[in-house]
## 1
Amino acid sequence: MTKSAPIELQFDDDGPLYVAQKKVYPQSVQGTFRRIKWGLMAVCLGVYYLLPFVRWNRGVGAPDQAVLVDLPNSRFYFFFIELWPQEVYYFTGLLIVAALTLFLMNSVGGRIWCGYLCPQTVWTDLFYAVERWVEGDRRERMRKDAARGTRKLQRFAEIVLKHSIWLMIAWWTGGAWVLYFNDAPTLVKQLVTFQAPMLAYIWIAILTATTYLLAGFMREQVCVYMCPWPRIQAALTDEWALNVTYKYDRGEKRTSLKKANELRASGVTAGDCIDCYQCVAVCPTGIDIRDGSQLGCIQCGLCIDACDTVMAKIGREPRLIGYDNDINIQRRQAGKPPIYRIVRPRTIVYTVLIAAVGAIMLYALMTRSLLDINVLHDRNPVAVKLSDGSIRNAYTVRLLNKRGFDRVIAIDIDGPVNATVHVVGADSVTPDRPMIVLGRDQTTELRLLVTAPGESNPQKSIPVRFRVTDIGLGEVASATDNFVSP
Amino acid sequence: MAEHHEIDQVTGTTTTGHQWDGIKELNTPLPRWWVITFYITIVWAVGYWIVYPSWPLLTTHTTGLFGYSTRADVAVELANLEKLRGDKMVKLGAAPLAEIERDPALLALARARGKTVFGDNCAPCHGSGGAGAKGYPNLNDDEWLWGGSLDQILQTIQFGVRSGHAKSHESAMLAFGKEGVLKKDQIVTVANHVRSLAGLPTGKGFNAAEGAKIFADNCASCHGDAGKGNQELGAPDLTDKIWLYGSDEATLIETVSNGRAGVMPAWVERLDPATLKALAVYVHSLGGGK
């Protein structure tokens, strides 16, 4: 064995795998988009917290909560709609419409969802408002964090207050969630008197924890690292979509007000941007919009407000940052007027798809049967020969009455010749046509015996149709199976 | 091991001094977290021995601090189940048979309970769906040896057929051949007569008058003059389309020669009254009940 030189393994140094979080201290800002955000926050949170208390009369014996997920009884109530477990596919339609609406939003105004409507944004915004109210604005918070260890008592009190309010909001978030799964006023009473089911407390605890952590600590990290939507939307946007854009056509070169005036006086171009970093200071994800459209930008529009405020102060035209796209920047640079194409094939297709899926869902909902029947043929034995030579088949029949009242239905069968039908346990006054009472909003299981003479039904298997007719309303439902000879 | 201080140049770790065909074993220590986890599992195991039953002794085993046993868990769960059933089964036990079939809730309970009990106790002979087999009646059809009303079915389930129970259905068919009551040719004739009763074709040279006479003398006392059977005696109807053992000539000859005496156990001492009722309702609801 000869001694060889040690093998040197090659490693690419990509640097650390994780970047340490850079704390963001968003500054308060006033303006159009801030007002829109406050308004939407009020609407979103208002709907979320108050909807469980809205009542909707469905008659005696039925829950009167407008929106209720009744898990023990497997029902979902939404105002005038009541869904059974069999109809959960409606949610698929709802999800398709939701996805298409996101696509449409994206092709019109970029990440409207991210910036204004996403729960992560709304709750984080609310938590920032609390933080600002307790600890002060950006500079103050930065100073307090830097000066750790001084004025200990006051600082401690502030931190305790902030986290208490956060936890309270988080607790309400979890508390409102469980109200959608139970009668809200009853559950509130139970919660207050500590008599609610354990499950309710567990879910409140879980959602309190997630809200507190996601909105209080993880914040923009959720958008940047966890959420798939920023990645998806990058594939959905196009050159016409309006995104929050720094209009570099009138921004470069960035320099101070005084210098810009000097440069302009000497015939050199200078931009409107005075490099004041207000857009960066107000940004909740801590990015610089002037670097262009980027993953970290949730397009909340707060930098527009910040920039407009500065532009107004220095007497320059507003909307140096605004909803715009590259096409218009280039057109302006070329001296052409900007054009906006909100209505274009992409948005038309999305709108048509939303309308089509919505119409299909509405049609399916309006025409769905509120009386239904399922039939299961007995397998053992599949057929029985009776003493007079006739054949009997037994079926397990499940009838669904989705209406809120009891109803009488008649059972008929078509198929085997001279067949009679009998319901086990039912003494019907009309022997040839059994009548059954179906309880309101429930299923009824019956054992059905169909008997037919063997000689008039020589086939091995005959299709048989079970028809149930609502005697009062005339509603009909049917199901098919086979009538089999031994 | 102190003398092995050779350091492997590639990895920079020491070797153990073990060598196979020039391949040296590196002395790579286990990761600390692994060793700690290993020690924790040992400590955990000791705790487990103390808390749970673990060590087998000669005739018994250590029971652990809390005397936990999976058997006791099962007993508790079964007791809970009985408690859960309790009220409903009491109601079922108290209701008259006919009323159970008319009350949808009681019927559903009886059918569910009956189905389970049927599967556990009756299925070996009657089949899981009650379809029966040769010698074991089909409970789905409308022919009943001992009667198909709810009360009659319950009676049969409770006390059985030739079960040895004092209230059991008795009376067996005589072995006409074995006992020497009928001669071979007479048996063939009466077998063909029985086939003619059911409208089945008879063999060549069948003497109808002779057949009728043998039947009237020997069989009619139980099966009736017209062969319609008698449920008091468990004598089947010979004119219908249902045959427990078979309707071909050879089988009928065998039946007449050796007699038939199927047996069903009595269940009255094995199942509680409410369960027996549930079973009767279940069998009745299979379709053949009268």
Note: The two ends of chain B are 92 Å apart (CA to CA).
## 2
Amino acid sequence: MSPRLSFRHGVHPPERKELSAAAKIRRMPFPSEVVLPLSQHTGKPARLIVAEGDRVERGDKLGVAEGFISSPVHASASGTVAGIDLWPHPDGTYKPAVRITVHPYSAQAPRPRIVPHWEDLAPGGIVQAVQDAGVVGLGGAAFPTHVKLSPPKDVQIDTLLINGAECEPYLTTDHHIMLEYPERVHLGIRIMMRALSVDRVMIGIERNKPDAIEAIRATLPTDLDVTVHPLTVKYPQGAEKMLIKALLGREVPSGKLPLHVGVVVQNVGSVAAIAEVFETGLPLIERIVTVSGRGIRQPSNLIVPVGTKVRDLIAACDGLTEDAHEIVFGGPMMGAPQASLDVPILKGTTGVIVLSRDETKPKESYACIRCGHCLDACPVFLNPQLLGQLALAGRYEETEAHHIWDCMLCGCCSYVCPSNIPLSQLFQVTRTAIGRLKALAAA
Amino acid sequence: MRLPQLLVTASPHLKGPDTTPKIMWNVVGTLVPVIAAAGYFFGFGALLVVFAATLGSLLTEWVFGPKGSLRDGSGVITGLLLGLTLPPGFPLWMAFIGGVVAIGFGKLIFGGLGQNIFNPALLGRAFLQAAFPVAITTWPVGGGGFWDVRAENLSLPFMGLGQTDTVTGATPLGLMKFEGVATAVRDLFLGTIGGSAGETSALVITLCGGYLALRNFLNWRIPISIFITVAVLSELLHLLNPAYPGPLFMLFSGGLMIGAWFMATDMVTSPVTHKGCWIFGAGIGALVVIIRLWGGLPEGVMYSILIMNAFVPYINRATQPTVFGTRVTEAAS
């Protein structure tokens, strides 16, 4: 028996992965229109380089990276640019997006292109190719991958962690990538090892995916120091800091990045996406999305062109059930609720969860009874009870003294709160308010 | 496609199974065996006392509390616990007033559920102790038929205790303190002793409290910390001077069991941190021993808990958890 790899605190929400765990990855038909927001990643939005009426082929650039911490956006289907509008964005706002009317009779074959051979490239060349392909973290945060592959010169990276925890309930995206494309994951690991010049790789997978652990183990390269580590099933095991703690016992200092403890963490989906860039030469224009929840008729793991409207995605899964009640992008613990069926799937959309009425949380909340359950749940050892009181009272400066910026917004405190106090929402709102107040003070 | 009415709420979109009313009603449920034991040992009168205190609590909550607050179950707990701390022969009208004070001045005046500093049931009892010192220290002994209701139970307001025809006796702690007589630990454990309605069977109370601890509806560190402190201190003192009672007597006598399992663990008035719970329990345990051995009263659980309640904000402040990743920075800098 291998050691119990885990972290302290955390919660055990119902997993409900069985809904889509058996569904093999399948490709959904191209929709009649795709909408590609210029901001799909952490950092500056891409700069637009097409105009209304332009014809674009699948894989053509629509926007180029604006600076280092930015990522280009590519057309996910051949068609005509129908407009560049403010369009509903999954984050709840309207953002500039390129709307492409897909050519109904197009074969959707990409232009012939030169596939770069990664073994001939210097680390810098790999990073450049990854950036040009618009690869971002596919685990949800959508942080540009080339930035992670370019650590500062003075930092020594000794370990690359591959995150296959997938601790969010319902999601089976990474599960199926590991299960069905293990070789692609291993190729991506090779490429990353070269780009980062690291020798040690650890793959962490939660124990609730024994078939994925088996598939990854069966294809392990024998010439490299790559090891697989089954992890305790606990939310948020897949959070970077928790994963590093579980696998290496290192604690990322407050306010610092994994780099500071010599680690780069990359999600398996992103690793596979890097491999795909060097396999096909195609940029990141499609991704695998879990569509699940009791509100969807046919829970699936789909290959989805980026920019597909959630309406088309639902149609590809046989539609909604009668009691579909809430649509969430991402997992149900940290995902964003959607108010429109026109929002597009982004590069970072791990899943679309349609919750039925009985899966959604109750509305009633009660006064805090100081039970302390939130303190037992918080994986970063905050005092959500106190922070919640301070946030409600508008005592923002004190929330900063009590480490509100260390909160990962993982939602464990809200999940366990018997009084159903929306703690993590309060913290999000408070941080936004602090940011605005600081901007006002600076102005 | 049919367009559903979409719910838009902030994450997380899932919610754990525990709710505040569920916790409260579970506590109420586990108090039922304790109340049944009171009825078994002291007869119907004890149940009437518990009922009167609960009635006072619920009426006050209903009249002065926020709308719908009866449903969360916290008012019932206060009433039941107050009733269980009273002598079985306590006049019902006094128990009723105790319930009114417990909810009104113990909870609602602070702003309702979650806002009070002191355990409301114990605050109500402290009031009764000050207002009716004779009635609250009149301990009828068990025995007699179940339906024999004591005359004091039915005494009218402000007319004295009426004819006190029932046989009264001292509690084990009273016997120990004022007459130096020890009661057998077996009687204490099973509950065949004099005392408050809920001060009888350590066995029943421990089983009920243990259930709540298993469900995580109370923090087990508080009762365990109290028990360890009381046991260690009394053992030490007993070794120094055998006239002091031993740890088993100290643990199973008086209100320690019900106080440790059901009152000190009141979530609202106990610390939120685990470390704080250990300190809180140790403080209660130490105060119980001090008051019982050297104080003017035979029993000190109520005041021990109330005094430690006052320290909870300070304990919380002193035992804040160390935030992830802050230890490292301090070491590095």
Note: The first helix of chain A runs from residue 18 to 21.
